[in-house]
Fold each of these.
Amino acid sequence: MASPPFTPCSPPNPFRSKRLIYRAVEDNEEDRKFLHDRLNDPAQQLLGTMVLPRPKTRGDAAQFLATQQARLLGVIICLPPPEKADIEPGLTGIAEEDELTMAHKFLYPEKPIPIGRLSLQHTMGAGTEHHRNAIMGISFIESARGKGYGRESINWALDWAFEIAGLHRVTLEVLSTNEVALGLYQSVGFVEEGRQREAIWQYRKWHDIVILGILEGEWLRLRGREE
């Protein structure tokens, strides 16, 4: 779908999508706890990272928070506050709320409810920004998975990357056994570009890292626009 036209006097909100809000990662107890819980999620450790699975400390969460803030884009993915959500009264849109989400509703009833995080960072490191390449990272709490929030967030991030940040290429890396994520990434326009064969060791087996990418021109065609 083509992006709607706008004038400088009435630009679209770059930090909203249809159902979600994208806010900065804050150096506060709320975000440190959220990221600490994310880092200790078994699915996140086994499917979303390449590091050795082990319990993460609050110090690990603080370090991860700092890296998210330093990236080209680092956001917390949120649902609107319950009273503003277009849903049944008292619900957040998540069928089975986890303990973290329920606690957030009780402690911060006026604030958006965090359900995930997303980042973009320059692929080649500092001093290579002129190549306009970035790699995306994304994860969600368990109760927010399988509801289309990943697809919505990735499409939002691609629009931000190519429309606002002026990137030319966005990549992703995913474990070959994560078939759900692979299918999602390919369905929104990412193309498999290669594999690091038998690069990951899990449960007495070797697995590939699949490298996917999408170019600016491919994104334009998906949005029904000419390059």
Amino acid sequence: MNTRLLALRTDRKLSQTAIAHCLNCSQRMYSRYERGEVDMPLSILVEAARYYNISTDYLLNLTDIPNAYPSNER
């Protein structure tokens, strides 16, 4: 997951501070997620997938297809 987090962030030219703010965590904690030092909590994982409009499966390396699933919201 950590390599995909890094790639998603750098492809969009975002700083760790900027994405951490969007995910409601500190830059230091986000850095630890990105380096693979700690596991990302489910709530942050879901928020990251929403932010990048990708599936959580892609972040978890369960698929190489980044497309988000269709929303069930009406």
